[in-house]
Amino acid sequence: MTGRGIERALGLLAALGLLAGLYTGFLYAPPDAVQGEVQRIMYLHVPLILVSYLAFFIVFVASILYLWRRRERADAIAHSSAEIGVLFTALAIAAGSIWGRPTWGTWWTWDARLTTTTILLLIFIGYLMLRALVDDHSRGAVFGAVLAIIGFLDIPIIHMSVVWWRTLHQPPSILRPGPSTVAPDMQVALYTNLAAWMLLYGYLLAKRLRLEEARWELNRLRMESLG
Amino acid sequence: MSFARRVWAIAWKDLLAEWRDRESVTAMFYFAFLVLFLFSFALGADQALIRGASSGLLWLAFTFTSVLGLGRSIQGELENDCLDGLLLYPAEREAIYLGKLCGNFSAILVVEMVTLPIFAVLYNMDLWSQLPKLMVIAVPGTLGLAATGTLLSSMTAGLRAREAMLPFLLFPLTIPLLLAAVRGTEVVLLGEPFELAVPWLKLMAAFDTVVLVVSLMTFEYLVEE
């Protein structure tokens, strides 16, 4: 049961990492000179969104692998990673929105990156809905893989279109997210949280894959008992 | 038979079937008309507001209406196991995709061309002098819409919630295409210099290329068995 061992280790590390993240984020890092305490949301928001991008990249790679090699495992990774990616992206947008209200003065703005990320979320919600609706598992896996590939390749085009749309439509936004140079103490908090959320992603993925394996096992046993 | 002729044979089959009952195209056109008609209530009589929003309205009408046509096109293949017959046809899967794409593209384009005069009348626009430029925008826009829709509708066709799933998948994916088409149309309708539309044309070309390449590479997996 090495898979189980890895899962446990990841879970433990993720829990410790998140505790360390809370400590560095809330106590160790100083409040932001301009934004004050509210800037601490960035220690949640930035890791969440970076891990989501990673998750969707993994969906993309696993989907190509699945179409190419037809390994059930590749599909299980793609499907699980998409679920976690959707969850994390939604949380990242929510956290960003809570930060945006006091900082930018609005819950929502049609900022290029925010818009692209939202479209990314919509595409992968569509992916999950499609997977849930297709009864035949292997057909669903193929459909999902094709959708994930086209959706992922669409992202740079979406981003470019949204950037042009904004810049051609109205003067450059005066609202710029925080200073580009991050103080060392803040970097510690940021990277600690990034590592913690990465570990949590790994833990959730491992757990989700074990669930999938249990499902295969159940199917196999059912087939056996039916003869 | 060459590859091009096999593609043409499938497209011809779709177009002929459509010509004989004209069900899809009539429904699509009527729907586009209704959308344009209803939108004018939302905008009121403010001429400046109408001018500003008109390209967006036009493309929303085109998009909604193409969902209707794309869904019906693939649904027709599922009835009486036509799709199985189509797959038995000795042609590459790529030819089947391109054939269906040609059929869908032509149907949507025809509906657009019939909708344009209605649009011109309802929104008091001068389209005739601008028609060639408008076509330069409409053709790549419609091609991308039809290419994405042909691929996605082959996934959603057999599902319980197919009417809902096709737009759920199609709209987010085609946002860059629609943005580009809307901006390009805006440039033409507002009489801005056409150079402003060039980056958007390039963007549509990039979108169409990506979708066509991925579709041609993956379509065979979608219709196997």
Written account of the structure:
The complex is a heterodimer of chains A (227) and B (225). In chain A, 82% of the residues lie in helices and 0% in strands. Chain A is mainly α and 227 residues long. Chain B is mainly alpha-helical and 225 residues long. Chain B starts with a helix and ends with a helix. Classes of the chains: A mainly alpha (227), B mainly alpha (225). Chain A binds chain B through residues 67, 119, 122-123, 125-126, 129-130, 133-134, 142-143, 145-147, 149-151, 153-154, 157-158, 160-162, 164-165, 168, and chain B through 148, 151-152, 155-156, 159-161, 165, 168-169, 171-173, 175-176, 179-180, 183, 199-200, 203, 206-207, 210-211, 214-215, 218, 221-222, 224.
How do the strands and helices of this protein lay out in sequence?
The complex is a heterodimer of chains A (227) and B (225).
Chain A: H1 2-28, H2 42-69, H3 72-104, H4 112-133, H5 137-169, H6 184-226
Chain B: H1 3-21, H2 23-43, H3 47-78, H4 82-88, H5 93-122, H6 131-156, H7 162-173, H8 175-189, H9 198-222
Helix pairs in contact in B: 1-5, 2-3, 2-5, 3-4, 3-5, 3-6, 3-7, 3-8, 5-6, 5-9, 6-7, 6-8, 6-9, 8-9
